[in-house]
Amino acid sequence: MKDVELKEVDQAKQLMTREINGCVKVTVPENTGVKYGLSKDELIKIAGTAGWIRTRWALLVLFWLGWVGMLAGAIVIIVQAPRCKPIPEMNWWNQGLLYQISDVNAFSDNGLKGVEEKLDYLSQMKVKGLVLGPIHTVKADQPNTLDLTSVKPEVGTENELESLLKEAHKKGISIVLNLTPSYEGESVWFHNLTAVAEKIKEACTYWLNKGLDGIFLSNLGDLEKSDSWPSIQAIFNQTDKTKKVALMGSVTSLSVDDISVLLNRSGVDLLLTGQPDPAESGKKQAEVIQKLGHLQMSLGWSLSGRTLGSLASRTPAVPVKLFHILLFTLPGTPVLNTGDEVGLKTGEKPQTMWDLKTPDEETNATAKALQEERIAVRNFFKALSDLRGKERSLLHGEYVSLYSSPTSLAFLRLWDQSERFLTAVNWGTDSVTMKLTYSDLPAQAQVRLSTDAANLAVDRMVSLQKLELGPKQAVLLSYPYAG
Q: What is the distance between the alpha carbons of residues 358 and 5, in angstroms, rounded to a whole number?
């Protein structure tokens, strides 16, 4: 009996398994007499019952309710999410630093060719545009020698200017030509504005057709009153050019209100004002900035140049880095002059800047200290220029005055949901404690750049309720948008 049972078990195993090439293959007997699940006919019969029909309809309704609910939730999220503020219309002169090279031969030994050789340096400083010259032919107070469409041989040739323009464009740098007629004489207009204005009109057409990106004119207030002004302005309003060309100018000895009127009336693309005056008090400078800040897309802050002198010479009692912070964070275009980035004084040769690229081992302690200081100033300048070119709050953000006193001021730059930047400067000989209040201000902010490394080190968090600033010091702080 046991033998029979074993045989039956062995036979069942043989049916279930078979070894093929070392692998076990499972074989299920076809007619085991066991029935699994429902047949097709049975399923069709059950599917038509009232219970299953109700179940299917319930599941279908639940699916569509869930889908509609998710769609409604997505719409609510989109509607309630904060909208990004539209970016204002910006041109190339709004996007970073403008750099004036008034004396081409002083800037480089090789004239226009030398400027081309220094384009890499200018690109590292994040320069967006060069205001070049004047480089045209003229003798002081001799109107018959004026030729606005020629390049004086002392600085180079027209071909060298075209080569400079071509290479500058490759690096994203625009070139603006200064066409101030008599730049070394008693009057820039030779006391004959009408005759000179016609020559300016011809020169604008000539140089813009050569590919120049703009024209700059000093004493714009006088020219704007002439009969030729509308036809000059019309040259720059042409829409057939792929890149907007700029009509730029400067004014001196005008009040803040007159500057605003001139800017609106003239329609000039960028106006350099020479404001705020470094000799004025902090309160006065804050008032000037407040009145002109809303014109930031057509306003250039220029505290140095051919007639004003260098930035370091205009502010000898204050570190030049303080004014670097101010100029790069004001609502408008920062315009700096040759040598301002290292703190050169009026009369010092720009060759000093090129020596800093490969500094020598100075044996004189004083000379070595000065060399190290200028390298530090240049690095500080470069960091500010880099921030100015990429941060929306600094590029086109709103200006909010936070504090002002006879010796100091603080203001905020903010844009939509972008990071906020707070500038505080103290021109005085005593420390100040600024009590800053604004709905957007957190308790603390991070130091981004500072002239006081000992007390306001970079990346340190400082209190905004009582911001302490030492004499002749400045700091740039930032904090994130909090909603």
A: 101
Alpha carbons 375 and 318: distance in angstroms, whole number: 18
- Lowest average pLDDT, out of 120-124, 152-156, 368-372, goes to 368-372
Q: Which residues contact 301 (CB under 8 A, 6 or more apart)?
A: 272, 273, 275, 327, 330, 332, 333, 334, 335
Residue 273 confidence (pLDDT): 87
What pLDDT is recorded for position 133? 92
Which residue bears the tokens 């219970």?
51
Phi, psi for residue 64 in degrees, rounded to 5: -70, -35
Give the pLDDT confidence of 323-378 residue by residue, as tens digits.
Answer: 999 999 999 999 999 999 999 998 888 888 887 766 556 567 888 888 889 999 99
Classify residue 137 by burial, with Cβ atoms within 10 Å: 0-12, 13-18, 19+.
middle
Count CB atoms within 10 A of the CB of residue 375: 14
pLDDT, the chain, mean: 87
Cis, peptide link before residue 134, omega less than 30° from 0: yes
Topology of the domain comprising 398-479: Immunoglobulin-like (2.60.40)
Three-class secondary structure of residue 376 per DSSP: helix
The one-letter amino acid code at 282 reads G
First-residue to last-residue Cα distance in the chain: 88
Q: How far are the Cα atoms of 66, 71, 81 from residue 76, in angstroms, in the given order? A: 15, 9, 8
pLDDT of amino acid 396: 94
Q: Which two tokens stand for residue 271?
A: 């106006």
Report helix, strand or coil for 335: strand
Pairing of strands 333-337, 444-450: unpaired
Show the tokens assigned to 350.
């720009």
User: Residue 386: which pLDDT band, with cuts at 50, 70 and 90?
Assistant: very high
CATH-assigned architecture of domain 92-390: Alpha-Beta Barrel (3.20)
pTM of the entire structure? 0.82
473 phi/psi in degrees, rounded to 5: -130, 160
Provide the 3-class DSSP secondary structure of residue 175: strand
Domain ranges of the chain: 1-81, 92-390, 398-479
Positive/negative CA dihedral, 177, 180, 181, 186? negative
**Cα 411 from Cα 418, distance rounded (Å):** 16
